[in-house]
Amino acid sequence: MLYGIEREASVIKSRNADVEAVAVSAVEGKPMYGGNMLVKPLIKGDEMTFLEIHYAAGVGAPLHTHTHESIAYVVKGKVKSTVGSEEFIMGPGDVCRHPKGVLHGLEALEDSVVVEVKSPAPDIGAFFAIRK
Question: At a CB cut-off of 8 Å and minimum separation 6, what does 4 contact?
Fold first, then answer.
């Protein structure tokens, strides 16, 4: 199951424990470095998708662009985020925006968990190279 979605009386929800994490080896056709990231695609709406992403220390998403906007929120750990020509370190509670068409990337400085909202919702299978 790619998304752990359940429908109850017109409410759509996802239980984290029911969603399997998938190993991702590339983003937008560019290989990850330092290893794979683990992604849990928790829920997808009509216009957005919500992902929980687990990075081991040293794992990074290469600089890339895409046709959707992303908001990234650090739940745990420390990451280095690059957006355009700006670089900054983010810790728990910090958030950044990856605008559509702007070069960006993220690298875990320690084991980290990041949640991302992407809009409009991309085809996750096409966006990520997923290893099964």
Answer: 14, 15, 16, 18, 19, 42, 43
